[in-house]
Amino acid sequence: MSKRVAVLMGGWSSERAVSLVSGAAVTEGLLAAGYDAYPIDVARDPAELLARLTPKPDAVFNALHGRWGEDGTLQGLLDILAIPYTHSGLLASALAMHKPSAKLLFERAGIGVAPHVIVGRAELAAGDPMPRPFVVKPANEGSSVGVRIVRNGANLGALDDDWGFGETVMVEQFIPGREFTVAVMGDRALAVTEITTDRGFYDYDAKYAPGGSRHVVPAQVEPAIYDECLRLALVAHRALGCRGVSRADLRWDGERLYMLEVNTQPGMTPTSLLPEQAGHVGIPFPDLVSWMVEHAEYDA
After folding, report:
1. In terms of Cα–Cα distance, which of 90, 54, 114, 52 is closest to 251?
2. Domain 4-86 has CATH 3.30.1360.120
3. What is the pLDDT at residue 127?
4. What is the reported pTM?
5. Is residue 15 annotated as a catalytic residue, yes or no?
């Protein structure tokens, strides 16, 4: 009998639309691989989710993105239910999503990060916390949601009008240069992709809109830099305590690599980087999602 796999998707975070696309692709891939896969559009109602997970599936494929699905919240529920699930556990998920905590762990592991400060919105509105240009990020969101580059002449006060991501803000030095990303699958870094976009930086639309960005895999960079990207992605994956797959985003300023963040639940959409890198190293999409299900765990 084939394994029953519940694919959790949608949710109510700012990344709901992307999650629905990821979940649909995952469901199709699992069905092609022979699993009894079925999608669940997760509502903000624990009782409804519990009902949809009864009787228990053999595994959960977590295709949710953003808060509540990617930050340890859902992982804790699945741990209580003792249902194996894909991707990282509660602690690693929470640490990776909370950018200040992740950066602290990266630094302790010897990984370079951009100089940064954590400030409140009122403090930010009162004056620049560092010389421009700098990047303003929500402390606890994914997929570049809410990220802004503040350059000379920009009106930072506009942040108060439509921010909507809490009172805590991370401000980090803008690192010019090239953007690389590396997917990790278990104990293997798959490849290095260079990302370019005409939008100025790799924001939410550049990530998910068709034609929003260009992916060069393998990245055309010196072999030593390529290998160092692979190494740093693995170090970051382990420093956070990740399992399954993750994806590390880095910047190269021509002299040094900087870790931007690690995504513990990379996108699985037609434009997503993880499936693209898996395909580059000879892993078809159905094999990728099968591997993820077969390596699903829960914390007892």
Report:
1. 114
2. no
3. 84
4. 0.89
5. yes
